[in-house]
Design goal:
Structural class: mainly alpha
Largest sheet: 2 strands, antiparallel
Helix content: 55-70%
Shape: elongated
Number of strands: 4
Strand order of the largest sheet: 1-4
Number of helices: 4
């Protein structure tokens, strides 16, 4: 006669139920986590935009300008945001940036101003406000997303 073992499959059934609920709600849960992580990065980008130096001078190759005009700065603040969540082949993500149709009061495209400020030009200094924000908040945003996912999984176990 073979020795047998008995096991309680209640734990297995409970885990299956949790996984089914997680699968059903996955897009909403992941979207919430991604949005909260993106919000941390976006808040830092806005803080960095606020900190951009304001100048009214024109830049030259010999004396590039360091900063943006008041109108450019306000356009960056007004035009910056987080896009809606999208599902890209199973990856839930979003973009933070400047909308396509965003122009400041002087008629300059906010994307153009942001790119010129971020990367610098022949006539303006590089001020990597966006890159610095991402670098400074990456760990914090990742941790926030992890916390939300863990909390949601814990909630499903109840």
């Amino acid at each position: 006669m073979m020795a047998g073992s008995r096991y309680n499959n209640a734990g297995v059934n409970e885990m299956i139920q949790i996984l089914q609920r997680l699968t059903y709600d996955w897009e909403e849960i992941a979207g919430r986590a991604v949005y909260e992580g993106s919000k941390i990065v976006a808040d830092k980008v806005k803080q960095n935009i606020q900190a951009l130096p304001v100048t009214d001078q024109w830049g030259t190759e010999e004396h590039p300008r360091h900063g943006v005009t008041r109108v450019e700065k306000q356009g960056l603040l007004d035009g910056f945001g987080i896009a809606d969540m999208i599902d890209s082949r199973g990856y839930i993500n979003t973009l933070s940036g400047f909308d396509d149709a965003g122009y400041n009061a002087d008629g300059k495209a906010n994307r153009l101003v942001a790119r010129a400020t971020q990367s610098g030009t022949t006539f303006s200094d590089k001020i990597p406000f966006f890159e610095n924000a991402v670098r400074a908040t990456r760990r914090q945003a990742t941790q926030k997303m992890k916390e939300i996912l863990e909390q949601e999984i814990e909630n499903l176990q109840r």
